[in-house]
Fold this protein.
Amino acid sequence: MARILLLGLFSVDVLLKSNLTGGVHKVNPSAERHQPLDPKKHKALLKVVVQQHPGTKISDIRTAINKRICELRHKKKSMDS
């Protein structure tokens, strides 16, 4: 559900330039930082998913969001090459 809502709340362009927190790249700290997702939209997404699926861990939702963003980046990268 979070993966579908993510694309309803954020454009693909925004997702390609963002991550959840805007933190430093863990593998390459000198890489360009991504912008954090809008915190209000992010919190709203988490709240809706937990309301619809009680017992779902926030960490699992965040992982699903990060995976979807990574998939979008991989798809764009493969299309560009």
